[in-house]
Amino acid sequence: MRVPVRIYADDELLRGILQGDALAQLVNVTTLPGIVDFAYGMPDMHEGYGFPVGGVAATLLPDGVVSPGGVGFDINCGVRLLATPLTRQQLGDRHVDLTHEISRSIPAGTGRGGRWVMSDTELHRVLTEGAEYLVRDRGFGLEEDLAHTESHGRLPEADPAAVSRRAQERGAGQLGTIGSGNHFVEIQQVTEVLDPLVAAAFGLTPGQVTVLIHTGSRGLGHQVCTDHVRLFDAKLAHFGITLPDRQLSCAPASSAEGTAYLRAMSAAANYAWANRQLITFHVREVVRRMFPDTAPRPVRVVYDVAHNIAKRETHQGRALCVHRKGATRSFGPGEPELPDEYRDVGQPVFIPGSMGTATWVMVGTRESASRSFASACHGAGRALSRGAAKRAVTGAEVRAALESRGIAVRCPTSSGLAEEAPIAYKDVDRVALVVEKAGLARRVARLEPIGVVKG
Amino acid sequence: MTVNALDHVGEWKVTISGHTLEDVFVAMARIIANAAGRIGDEEPSAWESIEVTARDVPTLLVDWANELLGRSEVTGLAYSELRSALVRPAADGSARVTAQLRGRRVSQWTSPLKAATYHALSLENVGGEWRAEVLFDV
How far apart are CA A5 and CA A25, in angstroms? Predict the structure, then answer.
């Protein structure tokens, strides 16, 4: 161990964390060359591969390592919250139609499926310019969407030349799609506001209808990670690095290999921001069609945050490569990157639960900078394996339970519903409270689902 | 050959047993094809040649899985039919798999598999039977 580990949890969450290999995996992270301070475990931490899910680690640049396993295969998987001009009362029982129309307009599942099969030129611009390209050149959004997106939806280090042909082929037809697994688009209502001042800054009011988008860089990101884990794994001896887990394979960020990964990862991150931007466009179109009277008041992007990414950031005067694997950036007030209306309160942080449970809107704190490299958790965290969830409940039972509570459900497979059932996840209210008590972010508003489109 | 899924909180772990290395590699291809989603009614595609090399046999199994996942997503095919599969370990420890494969078009993709990982990877001969354990990111 080059540094200690530090885990934020209460007794109950800690018991869950200690049941699997998550702690051992976090200890493995402490062996990364160049790691500083602590390897942090977020309250939703659970067993993954290489890094645990909910793990945060930073290495000292220029020569500290970058590890694709500290980012994951779904590069820049993240969440974007949209605030609609509708109230729950205005929506009434049309939430079923809204869920259905959104599911029709946004392809779910894996593989190809997007309506837009991009030319090489278009794909390269997505990889280079991210959400900017979609907003400024293609008309798929508003200028303010970019200000309300982490890094303005574009990492400048991106280089399409660092992205393999196979990765580009996988990505060409998938922009504007959700994917499978735990990815979703959820229609929600604001049921509780704990911090009215911050909620007002975020433009959230009780009874408002919101839409949460959870997806990432799709097959393109998976391939970028695959390519570079394989390359780094083969080069570890060359760099004189020994690791307890091959899936932690890494390279100095300053090396040719490390630089190439950061360029490819940045391109995949830009693809993910463009993906969520295009889905935003489709949601706006559905709302505009179904509720033409609301057209003068657009669906707003509250914020868009990544939770699988490695970024160059400065903390306590040090240039670091911060890995967030299943963890969300949590900037406090005063950060120059934040849009004007959020700069005095801090960055929005979203902690989704699961289908049928709440999502917490939180706000980043100044304290998080010294406690977790300005990071908070990314969700409730899994408590059961997918197999255990399917043994405990069927997809039909999950659907019936959700619909009995007035939650509309659209999902391509019944087993997918069972795998992502609420019982498979930890208690999101407990997780959000621990995040607040740890000083990583503060609770602002609670959102409850009224419609789920699952990938 | 036998295939079993093991519980893992975050991801998906699978064990494969077979009399030969080729059995294990063919089983891996079928796992990926079966997970792809709903298969259409069209005739199978033409046979394609495939070749993957790696520094050792266990690594080759993961790289083989990832090649099939990527290829399948690009072509839109679930590769469930293989012939002439051959796994050749070399004297220096490296290994190569060659095969011909063909598949059917996937009409609705629902595969949860993102990639195979090297985490806790094993592939060994126990009592004359080859046993592999591979963790997938899902």
Answer: 11
Domain total in chain A: 1
Tell me the per-residue pLDDT of A399-408, one tens digit each, with 9 for 90 and over: 999 999 999 9
Please tell me if residue B68 touches chain A, with a CB cutoff of 8 Å: no
The boundaries of the domain holding residue A90 are 5-383+425-454
CB pairs under 8 A between A and B: 108
pLDDT for A135 equals 98
What's the pLDDT tens digit per position in A175-199? Answer: 999 998 889 999 999 999 999 999 9
Residues of chain B with C-beta less than 8 angstroms from the C-beta of A412: 108, 110
A215 inside domain: yes
CB contact under 8 A, A223 and B70: yes
B23 touches chain A (CB under 8 A): no
The CB-side HSE value for A249 (13 A sphere, CA atoms) comes to: 21
CATH of the domain at B75: 3.55.10.10
For residue B52, what are the domain limits? 20-110
Catalytic site residue A183?
no
| A383·B9 Cβ contact <8 A | yes
**B:79-98 residues touching chain A, CB 8 A cutoff:** none
d(CA A248, CA A225): 12
Partner-chain residue, chosen from B9, B73, B118, that has the shortest CB–CB distance to A111: B73
Q: Residue A127 is encoded by which pair of tokens?
A: 């990889």
Tell me the per-residue pLDDT of A55-77, one tens digit each, with 9 for 90 and over.
Answer: 999 999 999 999 999 999 999 99
Q: Give me the interface pTM, i.e. the ipTM.
A: 0.95
The answer to whether position A405 is within a domain reads no
CB distance A183 to A214 below 8 Å: yes
- CATH number of the domain at A255, please: 3.90.1860.10
Which one, of B68, B70, B84, B77, lies nearest residue B44 by Cα? Answer: B77
pLDDT score, position A128: 98
- Residue B52 inside a domain? The answer is yes
Q: Does the residue B115 lie in any domain?
A: no
Q: State the smallest CA–CA distance between residue A233 and chain B in angstroms.
A: 9
| pLDDT surpasses 90 at A294 | no
Asked whether residue B120 is assigned to any structural domain, the reply reads no
Give how many domains chain B has, as a whole number: 1
Distances (CA, A) of A385 to A17, A419, A420: 13, 8, 10
Set A152, A228, A307, A378: catalytic member: A378
